[in-house]
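At this stage, I wrote out one protein's amino acid sequence and its C-alpha cells, and that material follows here:
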Amino acid sequence: MRSAWRTGLLSPLEVSVRERTIDVLRHSILNFDLKPGQRLIEREFIEQLGISRTTFREAIRELAAEGLLTVVAQKGARVRAPTLEEATDLYEVRAALECLIVSRFVERADEREIRQLKAAVKNFKRVSARTVDTLELLKTKELFYEVLVRGARSATLQQLLEGIKGRVHVLRATSLSYPGRVTETVAELEAIVAAIADRDAGLASRLCGEHVRKACITALASLRDVEDEGTG
C-alpha cells in the first residue's frame, strides 16, 4: 500500500477509504457480527459501505493476510473458521510467546506494573462474576495482556503477539464460553500473577503455559463438537 501511495497510484483519500473499510470489516469479525464461516457478499458490502469494488477487494486481501478471512477462487471470501490442526498450531505458538512475555515481565517490570497486573486480574474476576457475555470478558481480559506486554518491554514479542491476535480471537472466545472455563481462568491468572509478584520467572512461565494449554483443550473440544454436528 505504501509503495503504491508513494508512486502516486493511490491518493491519500483512497488510502483513507481503504483503511476505514478494513477497520469496519475487522471490527465486525472480531465482534462476531460476522460469524466464522460466513460468506462476505461483495455487492452487499459495497452498497452498505458506499465503496468501490476495488476498495472492497483490497480490504479483503489485507484481512486474508491477517488470517481473518479465507478467499477461495470463484467463491469469494469467508470469515476464517480454524480447523482443529490450525487451532492446535496457533495455541502452541501462543503458549511459547506468552511464556516468554511472562518471563520478560518478571525480569523487567517494576512494582507499579505488578500492582497494575493484579488490578487487571481483580477487574476480570469482578466482571466475570456479573456477566457471561463472552465479548465483554475478552475485552476485560485484554487489559491484563496490555499490562503484561507493556511490562515485558519487548517490541519484538509485542509484534509477534499482535500478528496472531486476530487468528486466535475466535478460539479464545470459544474457550471462554465453555462451561466452567471462566472460573478456571480467574484462578489460573491469579496463580500466574502471584508467581510474578514473587519474581519467580520459572514458575510464572510454567503456569502461563498450563493456562494456555487448558484454554486449548476447551477450544478444541468445542471445535470437535461443531465438526461432529456438521457431519452428524
